[in-house]
Write a structure and sequence with these properties.
Chain lengths: 756, 303, 166
């Protein structure tokens, strides 16, 4: 057994985190540091008719007060440039930043915020997705047509990004069907809710700024600062201390530029620390609410002939990375099924609510919940067991998927077998219990990424990487990859990471991509150093470089283990000559071709590189008197390719399942008619507790998929979040007699379904 | 703002006479201040060091619970668990272990939230509070204490020093017990959406001698269900339990808010009242049902 | 603004004399005045449990308590658990071994809650552990590995106390 496959996973950051010596952003202080506070719109839609910060600026202890007039007039956004740092003329959601204050402490900063005078002319809040898409709807952005946008983004009024998938002839497909099942599902928005509320600290030295921030994507944060403050990347340094969870909530560029601008104006370091309420209602990063209408045609023998769907996704007030959500949702409502005829229309709709953005497997838990609940309805219509129905229709190796992609080796069929076996599907159960089953999928993201690796003269090694650790352990696992390339131990490597001025680019802790892409980079960098070591050892041991084997911290000649030199000794030699330094990036695997389909608004999500598959089987218990549902047992099977770090991988699955249970039952953002979120605390926004946690069992279906990452690994951090709510829904539907068509499936909604 | 730490009850009462507000565990006050719901009072007197006020003592006519007794203490206290298990049920459901370690019964009762868990069993048990000032002591039945959400009849200089719970009547072979159940969306850190406390005395023949039920979070204050005399002298069988639920449901006036809609709340009032009555009756009949009842009844039940 | 008051705190055996606003919470005093940032703030309304510390050996929410209320008590935080030579407390060691942490933000609160739990009950049932830790939220792990860590720590602590009684 190599170090890489050892069962124990000793995190490099473990000692910091269990002793309290590790520092998170809010733990940092700098000389002369000021506290930042924001003035939020606190109204969902209004025209600003007066904004007066003079009283706030005049207050003792206030060092800077900024509004849109004090920063470059730049509209930004990765897909649609519809956003400014500070509200200009119109506010479009309650958490929009109107002004920012830096003051001697948080109390004074808040007093200054309260002293800012803003007068509004209220505008009607647009919160209904279908009404917003109507041709005569009020516009969230009156000037939408003039905004810059990426080339393939298809926009029209409140439709910020339209996408469709068309394959075959959907009408002909329905004509062939013996049954047509139509369903509507509605998902509420919800939240990433990391336990660490975000924090940002900025300090200027000359014309350079250093920003410590709790971001999952330091290079994205840097790009945002550069774009909005009109600076070159070389003068902006983003450092991420330990990051207290993200789940997508800390992806994207948020407040780094606001705080940098405040620090510049105040000529002092400035720190922002969010309250829990701010963490809930302010960032442009919420899991999107959705409406899903889906219709499936099926023959009496259970084969699917056609699927049609209409999807509306709540974009909120501004378009973050949600630009590609319409296409991603379309893929998830198609599902990993063999369907000859498909037509899906998907709209990303502006509203006056908090902007949506990538939260762990964006669009997937809701879309999968809708599709898989619908799939059980379809199975019921033809009188088939839902598991048998999935086995019949789910894609397998060599099949063509709904968007025209032909799959290489994949394990979704095996996932179904394994997950159902884990919970003994089919066992007799008490009449208040049932097992629901659902399948899901998720792409691997193939993107550029870089890393350096060096071994210093004393033999100690460092991996210097652009990768970001948000808790998953993916960055920690990079040590194992390097160690295996170099015949060393994972513990021999220190990680230098989360600093944009030190390491090469990486996309960050997003898209489950760290091991997939940065793993490739680290292997490449380690390979260069291995070459150097082999040639040094060859000279030292008087052998050919090709015969040198690196193992157990030594280089030896193949076949003669006594002819050996330690890597530390070689490092000492190198320190007097050509240093041991490697760099790597590697070529990201290409996207597979699509055949026989056409996509409008194609943002690259219709073809899944190295797709990951999963099946979740969940046993629930229902209190028929109250509608309260409790999850008793979960069996999951995941095809995420080769599992390099099983302990870390299990942690991803178990955490994803628990988050999925919350989404299924208790977590939903609730809004009043005026567009204010009502549950912005952890008492009312209910995360699952330890006392709620079920037994979770997992099997990894390890298949080497074409175009996978290092050693056949695919991503894993998001996949476990996809199918849990769907499986719970199917269990509830068995007990209630019909699905609960709203997410979360709260006790009250379950009870109401039981009444009808 | 001024803070004083009282080391004697007299100090505390004097500080209150001078306008200070008492703070024991502090939780409610800190949260309200942090979130801008209520400014901190200008003057605060800490009473958490008054050890005498944390005692739980059996008396001739029941139990005297010092206002500073914590939920963690009460949920395990033999006197409470044996004779007033409904109160122990409620204490065991409050917040989380760490909040139960700090939260006090007196603070809970005087905070006067209609969503407090301990209020319903105390009201059903006929509890009273002892209110003291520098120069007076009076005892107020809980039924007369609360006047609205966060409001009560205590004057600003009156300190709640104890909660007095009468002993269950034990004449002629009767057996008494109590229970508290609540609707829970998750199994910890919940705020009651609907809760019901029941106190029952069974005659030697197993029929109802007395029955009292109080409801949490379904009206501006915790309320007592009236008209339960109709069950006296009859067995509390399945039909009677259904009727108990219906009566409770009819008497509730719940609102719709972000925790639940009114019709669902009203329905759940019936379920909780029925379960509380059933659990209390079964306990009175000698069955051991662990604390809290929520872990033995309905969805939480172990199998 | 009100006048600062002097509060004497004993944290991990060390005495601190700090001047704070009377309204200052214990967690803010620990972080800002004692420079002990291992105790984290996750919600400031007593739900997440990240700020859990021991006050006279009982687990409490340091965000729900005024600093002055802790005067005269013995406070223990995550920084005070390991031995002076750096040897981890059995609960800390168990978290590492079982991979009971990911982002680590909730970890100090969990560790302190578990120390209190196992101090009260050296051999808790699985149900007692789940209920006992229900006041600490973790978004990363799904709690499974934390529950494993409690088992490991409980076994270590039992073995240690057995050793000590021999």
């Amino acid at each position: 057994m190599t170090a890489a496959t050892a069962p124990r996973f000793v995190r490099a950051d473990g000692p910091d985190k269990v002793t309290g010596s590790g520092r998170y952003t809010a733990d940092l202080t700098l000389t002369g540091m000021l506290a930042a506070k924001f003035r939020y719109a606190e109204i969902a839609h209004a025209r600003i008719i007066r904004l007066d910060v003079s009283a706030a600026r005049a207050m003792p202890g206030v060092f800077a007060v900024l509004t849109a007039d004090d920063v470059p007039d730049v509209r930004f956004g990765p897909f649609v440039q519809d956003r400014t740092l500070f509200a200009r003329d119109v506010v479009r959601y309650e958490g929009e930043v109107v002004a920012a204050v830096a003051a001697v402490n948080a109390t004074v900063a808040q007093q200054a915020v309260d002293a800012i005078v803003v007068e509004y002319e209220p505008l009607p809040p647009i919160t209904d997705l279908e009404a917003a898409l109507a041709g005569d709807s009020l516009l969230v952005h009156e000037g939408w047509a003039a905004y810059g946008a990426g080339d393939p983004v298809v926009r029209d009024r409140n439709d910020a990004s339209f996408s469709s998938i068309t394959k075959g002839d959907v009408d002909a497909g329905f004509a062939e069907a013996d049954h047509v099942v139509s369903s509507r599902y509605v998902a509420d928005g919800c939240h990433a809710a990391p336990i660490e509320p975000r924090a940002v600290l900025a300090q200027w030295e000359g014309n350079k700024v250093t920003i410590w921030t709790s971001t999952q994507v330091p290079f994205d944060a840097r790009a945002g600062v550069c774009e909005t403050l009109e600076m070159p990347a070389s003068r902006v340094r983003i450092i991420v201390p330990h990051l207290g969870g993200g789940f997508g909530g800390k992806c994207g560029f948020h407040y780094e530029a606001h705080i940098a601008a405040l620090a510049k104006a105040a000529k002092r370091p400035v720190r922002l620390v969010f309250s829990r309420r701010e963490e809930f209602f302010a960032p442009d990063r919420r899991r999107e609410g959705m409406i899903i209408d889906v219709q499936t045609g099926v023959r009496s023998d259970g084969t699917i002939t056609a699927r049609k769907a209409w999807i509306a996704i709540d974009n909120g007030a501004y378009t973050t990375d949600a630009g590609f959500f319409s296409q991603l949702a379309a893929m998830h409502v198609s599902g990993p099924y063999k369907i000859p005829n498909v037509h899906i229309d998907s709209h990303l709709v502006y509203t006056n609510l908090q902007p949506s953005g990538s939260v762990r497997a964006p669009t997937a838990p809701q879309a999968c919940w809708a599709l898989e609940s619908h799939t059980d309805e379809v199975a019921k219509a033809v009188g088939m067991d839902p598991v048998a129905f999935r086995k019949l229709n789910a894609v397998d190796t060599g099949d063509i998927g709904p968007s025209g992609q032909t799959y290489g080796e994949i394990g979704v069929q095996r996932c179904i077998d394994e997950a159902t076996a884990l919970v003994d599907y089919g066992q007799p159960l008490p009449d208040d219990e049932a097992i629901g089953v659902a399948i899901g999928w998720w792409p691997s993201f193939s993107v550029p990424s870089g890393a350096y690796l060096k071994i210093d003269g004393d033999g100690s090694a460092q991996i210097i990487t652009g990768a970001q650790e948000c808790g998953t352990g993916a960055v920690m696992t990079l040590r194992q990859l390097a160690a295996d390339e170099l015949g060393m131990n994972a513990e021999d490597f220190e990680l230098v990471y989360q600093d944009t001025s030190v390491a090469p680019y990486d996309m960050g802790a997003t898209g489950s991509q760290t091991l997939f892409n940065n793993g490739r980079a680290v292997v490449a960098a380690a390979g260069q150093v291995a070459e150097q070591l082999r040639s040094l050892a060859a000279e030292f041991l008087e052998a050919a470089p090709a015969d040198i084997v690196l193992a157990d911290g030594h280089a030896h000649v193949a076949g003669s283990p006594t002819s050996t030199v330690s890597i530390a000794e070689l490092a000492g030699i190198a320190a007097g000559g050509e240093l041991l330094i490697g760099h790597g990036s590697g070529a990201p695997p290409a996207a597979p071709a699509l055949v026989g389909s056409s996509c409008v608004g194609d943002l690259g999500m219709a073809a899944f590189v190295a797709p990951q598959f999963s099946c979740h089987a969940v046993r629930v218990r229902l209190d028929r008197d109250t509608g309260v549902v409790r999850v008793m047992e979960v069996g999951t099977a995941h095809d995420s390719g080769t599992i390099i770090n099983e302990m870390g991988a299990l942690g991803q699955v178990e955490g994803g399942v628990m988050m999925g249970i919350g989404q299924a039952l208790t977590e939903g953002a609730q809004y009043d008619a005026e567009g204010h979120q009502r549950n912005t605390g952890l008492l009312e926004y209910k995360l699952q507790t330890c006392a709620d946690s079920p037994v979770i069992r997992t099997t990894f279906v390890q298949i080497v998929t074409p175009n996978a990452g290092p050693r056949g690994a695919k991503g894993l951090a998001e996949a476990p979040n996809v199918a849990t709510a769907a499986a719970i829904s199917n269990a509830i539907a068995k007990l209630v007699g019909q699905p609960v068509r709203q997410l979360p499936m709260t006790a009250e909604r379950v009870w109401k379904a039981m009444q009808s | 703002m001024t803070f004083t730490i009282a080391t004697t009850l007299e100090d505390a009462l004097a500080a209150m006479a001078a306008g200070a507000r008492p703070v024991a565990g502090g939780s409610d006050l800190v949260v309200a201040a942090r979130h801008g719901k209520a400014a901190l009072p200008a003057s605060i007197v800490a009473i958490d060091r008054l050890g005498d006020l944390a005692r739980v003592t059996g008396t001739d006519d029941g139990v005297r619970i010092g206002a500073l007794a914590t939920h963690a203490t009460l949920m395990l206290h033999p006197l409470i668990v044996d004779s007033y298990p409904g109160l122990a049920d409620a204490c065991a459901l409050v917040g989380s272990p760490a909040t139960r370690n700090v939260g006090t019964l007196g603070g809970n009762v005087m905070n006067s939230s209609p969503a407090m868990d301990t209020g319903a069993p105390l009201l059903a048990l006929g509890a009273r509070v002892e209110l003291r000032t520098v120069d007076s002591t009076r005892v107020v039945p809980l039924a007369e204490l609360w006047t609205g959400p966060g409001r009560n009849v205590a004057a600003t200089d009156e300190l709640c020093t104890a909660i007095l719970v009468p002993a269950p009547t034990a004449a002629g072979g009767t057996r008494s017990s109590s229970a508290y159940v609540r609707l829970e969306y998750r199994r910890a850190m919940e705020i009651a959406v609907v809760g019901a406390g029941a106190s029952i005395t069974l005659a030697a023949d197993g029929t109802v001698e007395s029955l009292a039920i109080a409801l949490t979070a379904v009206a501006p204050t915790i309320i007592s269900v009236t008209g339960l005399d109709a069950f006296v002298g009859k067995p509390l069988d399945a039909a009677a339990l259904t009727a108990v639920g219906e009566i409770a449901s009819e008497q509730s006036s719940p609102i719709s808010d972000l925790r639940a809609g009114d019709s669902y709340r009203r329905h759940c009032v019936g379920v909780m009242a029925r379960r509380a009555a059933e659990a209390a009756a079964r306990r009175a009949a000698g069955e051991i049902i662990g604390i809290p009842v929520n872990r033995a009844f309905g969805i939480g039940a172990a199998r | 603004m009100s006048e600062d008051v002097e509060v004497r705190l004993t944290v991990n055996g060390d005495g601190y004399r700090v001047r704070v606003e009377p309204r200052k919470t214990l967690v803010d005093a620990l972080r800002e005045d004692c420079n002990l940032t291992g105790t984290h703030i996750g919600c400031e309304h007593g739900v997440c449990g990240a700020c859990t510390v021991l006050v006279d050996d009982r687990a409490v929410r340091s965000c729900l308590m005024f600093a002055y209320q802790a005067e005269g008590t013995s406070i223990r935080t995550i920084e005070g658990l390991a031995d002076a030579d750096g040897t981890l407390h059995p609960v800390q060691a168990a978290f590492r071994e079982a991979h009971g942490l990911q982002c680590g933000f909730c970890t100090p609160g969990f560790v302190m809650s578990i120390v209190a739990l196992l101090d009260e009950n050296g051999a808790p049932t699985p149900q007692e552990v789940r209920e006992g830790l229900s006041g600490n939220l973790c978004r990363c792990t799904g709690y499974q590995t934390i529950l494993e860590a409690v088992d490991i720590a409980a076994a270590t602590l039992r073995a240690t106390s057995l050793e000590a009684t021999r």
